[in-house]
TrEMBL record, chain B:
Residues 2-231 form the ABC transporter domain. CDD domains: ABC_NrtD_SsuB_transporters (cd03293). The lineage of its organism: Bacteria, Bacillati, Actinomycetota, Actinomycetes, Streptosporangiales. It comes from Microtetraspora glauca. Keywords: ATP-binding, Nucleotide-binding, Transport. This is ABC transporter ATP-binding protein. One of its GO terms (molecular function) is ATP binding. InterPro entries: AAA+_ATPase, ABC_transporter-like_ATP-bd, ABC_transporter-like_CS, ABC_transporter_ATP-bind, P-loop_NTPase.
Length: 257, 260
């Protein structure tokens, strides 16, 4: 990422904040509905030392991380299986293509009926929604493995399973990593959605619900801001990690830097 | 040591190999040349056990080839696809040695030795994509050497490098063959190259492919890019192979040159 690009991004964000503040100052909008931007930002800063909010944020992040780990544990092996068994993939494909476009939030009410335990409920919807990109990317990553690379190891007498482990898996790893990054964004959406819809004792979603019942729009927005920031940070960390781990891939595909 | 008898292969209704027979003796460097699309790669993949031919017999050291034989290595034309980009050169070379049950340290040592033999003593830590094409193909050759195969198959090994590198690599292979006594079957479409590197040249016909001629080269093992190519015998053989590849096997006394 170059300097000029970052600068433009900062200018854009600052411009938006300034415009929002001006709208607030002009008195065009009742600040009970849309508080001033400065109030929201001050609220967001205050949340850093708010023990309640920190506990809520911690709970959401724990669910997010657990959900993401479960997703990887489920979707990567499933993708490896389907990616190496074309017939099984052909059989499952229509089902995947049918389920995948269903908005994941729509399954939350069903999950509420199915799961009595709040944590299980959240994990279930996160895994359901986040598995698709990991699954699809793993399958495509495996299909994309150069047959010559596999033949090379086969010619040295390696059996199918070692060939999968030593060639197919590393070749597909950059695709799988991208799938996991996309999944991490979905997981945070689902974690908070589940908290909003299913309730529970703690979580950013719970905090937002409580702020709403107290008509504290500024705190609702402040909490939302933190959720958004977390998503951005998680994404950038993963992008940086991918660049580092899979430099060979980015060099080859010309996507370096 | 390698015996190919009546090898036949078809892709669907298209018959590629129409009964190929020849043999390779221990320590020989045999080049196989033929017009493009004549099934040279199919032949090589059959010998390697990577595909199961429709018919015929291949034996390696007396054993029929049914799946990939042990002690066989291949150097492919496309080094950039055949080397693993996520591994350093040394690790690329060392990887197949796992099949030999060698521990980490011995694999590493064998890899370094092989890299030295191909003139890349200092490049072990580099990644394939940090190297020139010629260097990458040297790494592929080192990987094959480290494995100590009894038969080394080379599929157009110099087809993707520039002319100067090509000459260097040809001499490298000649050297390796002489010093290590490895048996090499080298497939090429380049007539000049087939004669320059080969102890024998097998000329294939168009598909359905058969052996058009099996020529003893008899230029000795010590060859020189300039001097060897000036020899009358070289020029004559090259012309002969050229005619055969173009399908004109009656124009010159091929029978005089033919071994069998």
């Amino acid at each position: 990422m170059n300097y000029a690009r970052v600068l433009r991004g900062v200018v854009g964000a600052a411009g938006f904040l300034a415009a929002a503040e001006l709208v607030g100052m002009s008195g065009l909008v009742d600040d009970r509905f849309l508080p001033r931007m400065s109030t929201v930002l001050a609220g967001a800063a205050g949340l850093v030392t708010d023990q309640d909010f920190l506990a809520d944020a911690g709970a959401t992040l724990t669910v997010w991380l657990l959900g993401l780990l479960l997703t990887v544990a489920v979707a990567v092996p499933a993708g490896l299986l389907l990616g190496t068994l074309p017939r099984a993939e052909a059989a499952v494909r229509p089902l995947i293509e049918f389920l995948r476009p269903i908005p994941s939030v729509a399954v939350i009410p069903l999950a509420i009926l199915l799961f009595s335990d709040n944590l299980n409920l959240k994990l279930a919807v996160i895994v359901y929604a986040s598995s698709w990109p990991v699954l699809i990317n793993t399958i495509y990553g495996l299909k994309d493995v150069d047959p010559l690379a596999k033949e090379t190891l086969r010619s040295f007498g390696f059996a199918p399973l070692p060939v999968l482990a030593r060639v197919a898996l590393p070749s597909a790893a950059p695709f799988i990593a991208t799938g996991i990054r996309v999944a991490s964004g979905i997981a945070i959406i689902l974690a908070i959605s589940a908290e909003l819809m299913a309730g529970g004792s703690e979580g950013i979603g719970i905090y937002i619900t409580e702020a709403a019942s107290g008509s504290r729009v500024d705190l609702m927005l402040a909490a939302t801001l933190w959720a958004g920031l977390f998503g951005v940070v998680a994404d950038s960390v993963m992008v940086a990690l991918e660049r580092r781990l899979f430099r060979w891939h980015h060099v080859r595909t010309g996507g370096a830097r | 040591m390698l015996e190919i008898t009546d090898l036949v292969h078809s892709y669907g209704s298209h018959r590629v190999l129409g009964g190929v027979s020849f043999s390779v003796a221990e320590g020989e460097l045999v080049s196989v040349v033929g017009p493009s699309g004549c099934g040279k790669s199919t032949l090589l993949r059959s010998v390697a056990g990577l595909i199961r031919p429709s018919g015929g017999r291949i034996t390696l050291g007396g054993e029929p080839v049914e799946r990939t034989p042990d002690n066989l290595a291949i150097v492919f034309q496309d080094y950039s696809r055949s080397l693993f980009p996520w591994m350093s050169a040394a690790n690329n070379v060392a990887l197949p040695l796992r099949r030999k049950g060698m521990d980490r340290r011995r694999r590493r040592e064998a890899a370094m030795t092989a890299l030295e033999q191909v003139g890349l003593a200092d490049a072990g830590g580099k990644f394939p994509w940090e190297m020139s094409g010629g260097m990458q193909q040297r790494v592929s050759i080192a990987r094959a050497l480290a494995y100590r195969p009894s038969l080394l198959l080379m599929d157009e090994p110099f087809g993707s490098v520039d002319a100067q590198t090509r000459e260097d690599l040809e001499d490298l292979v000649l050297n390796v063959c002489a010093h290590h006594g490895i048996t090499i079957l080298l497939i090429t479409h380049d007539i000049d190259e087939s004669v320059y590197v080969g102890d024998r040249v097998i000329v294939l016909t168009r598909s359905p492919t058969r052996v058009a001629a099996d020529l003893e080269i008899g230029l000795g093992r010590s060859r020189d890019q300039i001097a060897t190519r000036q020899l009358d015998a070289f020029v004559r053989l090259r012309a002969e192979v050229g005619r055969l590849v173009r399908g004109g096997h009656t124009t010159t006394p091929a029978s005089v040159l033919e071994k069998h």
